[in-house]
Amino acid sequence: MTETAENTETLNKPILPPDNKVSLPCEWPTRMLGNLIIIGIIFTFAFITVTIRTNLVGRQIDYLTEEFYNQTTKLGFTLDDVLVEGRKKTSQQALLEVLNLKRGDNILTLDLNDLKTRIEALPWVREAEIRRSYFPNILHISLKERKVASIWQISEKFHPIDTEGNVIDAPFKPTRPILLIVGEEAPQHINELLDIIKKDNEIWPRVKVANYISKRRWNLILDDIENGITIKLPEDNIEQAWKKLVKLDQTQGLLKRKLTFIDLRLKNKVIVKLGKMTEEERQKLKESKKTKTRGA
What we know:
Elements: H1 2-12, H2 28-74, E1 81-85, H3 92-99, H4 112-120, E2 125-133, E3 138-145, E4 148-154, E5 157-162, E6 179-182, H5 186-197, E7 207-213, E8 217-222, E9 229-232, H6 238-252, E10 259-263, E11 271-274, H7 279-295
Parallel strand pairs: 1-3, 4-6, 6-7, 9-10
Antiparallel strand pairs: 2-3, 4-5, 7-8, 8-9, 10-11
């Protein structure tokens, strides 16, 4: 009896795998795939709905905008004329081409910022101001044009340079004597030089040429391009060298003499080279020295 009971008890126990683990059915990949499909369908439906609604709204806005401009055109908001102030060097044809306007255009549709950008791209225009007025419907344009400060010679070509040292890409014929600058990168450095030499009212007006040597320093030519006095300035301490020249001219009349060049590149020396003098010039120089001696 005992053995039978024990055997029965053993038979009624659950049979477990050797590792004591229970394996459940693998359902999660199927569920995840189903969820992804549902999310994809919802996203596609939402995208189509938004696209359709957006296009409809966009078309409606475009239609209303066009209708608004059509009605304002009928009410008289059309461009009657364009008034331009400050135009001297800018050609009328070039201005008309960049504006691309005609009488009858709706004045409300004009993009003033775009027009300003296009006008300021013209070579002679430094700044443009644009405004519109109504009844009469007029577009007012005020130009500030570039001023030519010098002429730059490079590769046997001549280019006007404005007061800020910018090259003006336009033809130019000077109507008055103007400074000629020569050498590579001369426009980028000319204002640094002019800020120094323009302080003297005696020598500065005599400067005809400023030659930028090897992109390092300046040579100036006074009075005459071919036969004038060449002043060799140092690479550094230009202002100090210029003041020395001004002082020598004021105290000793250096630039009244017949000279070929004045070399100011050495800190403690001034090297000059005398030019050939005619007999008449020598006589005048002697008389000038005698006058100074008597006065002393």
